[in-house]
Each structure stands twice: as C-alpha cells, then as structure tokens.
Amino acid sequence: MPEGDSLYRFAALLRPVLEGRVIQAARAHGPGAVPRVQQVIGATCTGVRSQGKNLIISFDNGLALRGHLRMYDTWEVYAPGQPWRRPEREARLVLEVPGAVVVNFSAPVIELIEERALALHEPVSGLGPDLLDDAFDAAEALRRLRDPSRATLTIGDAIMDQRAMAGVGNIWKHETLFRCGLNPWARVEELSDEALLGVVEKARELLRASVGKPGPAGARRPSMYVYMRAGQPCRRCNTRLRSAPQGNDIRHTAWCPKCQPESPDQSIPPPPPRRRARP
Asked: How much is the pLDDT for 267?
C-alpha cells in the first residue's frame, strides 16, 4: 500500500485545491460502509494533512474525512468536465469545489468523523510518531520499539508497525534495513538502542528525501538497493540478493546475505530449491 511519503504527496496535491474552498457536491460509493459525505456540502475545507498512511481532510463544520489506501488506490484532481483516468465505478469518494473535482479511487477506508474524535479514534490516535512530521520524536519511537510486546518481533516486522512509528511500508523497510546493514530477521531484543535509533533516523532520512525535504540523503528520491530486486546482484558487493516471506501478510523481504549478515541463532526461511535444468 502507499507509504507515508505517498500520502504526504497526496496531501500536497489536494491542499491547494481544497483548502479555503466550499464543497459544492460530495458523493461516496461502496463497497463496504458508505459515509454520509453529503454532510460536508456547503462546508469549507480548513485543512488537508497526512498522518502516517492516513489522509485527513478537515472542514469548518467540525467534521473530517479520513482515507486509508491499499496498494494501487489513489487520490486525483481533475478540472470540471475533464475525463477521468479510471472508470467512475472505481470512484470511492468525489468532492467538487469551484474549479476542481477531487476523486479517490478504490480506497478500502473512507470515513466521516468528528474532528475532535480523531484524538480518540484508534486508527489515528494509536499511531506512533510520524516520520515526516517536523516535530518527529525519535526518543518516543525508540521507547515504543522497546515495548516488551515488540521484543521478539523481527526488525523487518517492527519497523512496519505503525503504532511504533508511522510512515514506513514495504519499500522503505527494505531500503532502511539495507542501509543500516541489518538483517530483516534480527529480533528487536537483539539490537542495541544505538542500532534501533539508527533504523529510526535512517527511515526518517529516506522518507524526507523521497518527498523533497532536505537532509543527509539530499532532497531526491533515494535509489532502490534491494526492494523488488530479489535474485539480482547486490549493487554494493555483487552478492545475489535473497528473498523470503515475512510478516503476517507474508510479503517477501529481500536482503543481501553479505551486507546484511545474519546472526548464528536467527531463523530465516531456507532458500527455495534450485530447479534442475531439463535435459
């Protein structure tokens, strides 16, 4: 699914279109629960922001829309009457303001909630510090990673736990751990505070660079060293990258056996058997 940097860019796309403008029309569609978005017609948008992997649109009547995306879902902006890139049946939410039409395609979650309730709404209130927030608290992220409930998690799973720190998904999990030289199957309890803080700061550095915020990695989207490169040679040492399923969603994680060495007691799924060439 889109990661924190993608939601940050979506918010930047929608902000100049929606903020300060009156909602002239609003409609939502299934599947699943359909929010009563007609309640924001006539209201003025007061803000658009990302929070982790959530996008939140606020209104002056005290309501807010929260959207959460899957892998290929998106927010797009069109001029009135302009053909849409995707069919209307895939539109999950449509907001019309003077001069523009904002469309969300296929999001699994679009909900309308009171703005004041967001502080108690678990999908938002339960998030850890947002890596793209200028006021990001690295010490708090470390404290959450050190929670006893995460001690036996692999670092590959822990770095994607949005309740520890918000914004990292599968892409930046790969790239952060590679750059930190950490094997994805290392347990949190095996890592020093220094190593965990290194993971936190590197993840933040990469996400900031991805959205054009200056930092040690510059302001350009970082290169991919391991993501989607399983079986290819490492761009640092030329070792063949390995891959194995990891996490509750059983996504495959790729890593370099040389640059990200495993410890003797780690349990990593064995590599698949090589197919014999046909005679």
From this structure: 67
pTM: 0.88
Query: Fold for domain 138-255?
Result: Helicase, Ruva Protein; domain 3 (1.10.8)
CA distances from 190 to 124, 151, 165, 262, 264 (A): 30, 8, 19, 12, 12
CA distances from 243 to 71, 121, 234, 240, 267 (A): 20, 36, 12, 10, 14
Does 4-125 carry CATH code 3.40.630.90? Answer: no
Query: Tens digits of per-residue pLDDT, 71-113?
Result: 768 999 999 999 999 999 999 999 999 999 999 999 989 999 9
Kindly list the catalytic residues: 2-3, 53
CB 211 within 8 A of CB 11: no
- Mean pLDDT over 128-146 rounds to 96
Choice among 205-209, 247-251, 254-258, 259-263 with the minimum mean pLDDT? 247-251
Start-end of CATH 3.20.190.10 domains in the chain: 4-125
pLDDT at 265 over 90: no
Please state, in angstroms and rounded to a whole number, the distance separating the CA atoms of residues 121 and 139.
24
State pLDDT tens for residues 211-232.
Answer: 988 666 555 678 899 999 999 9
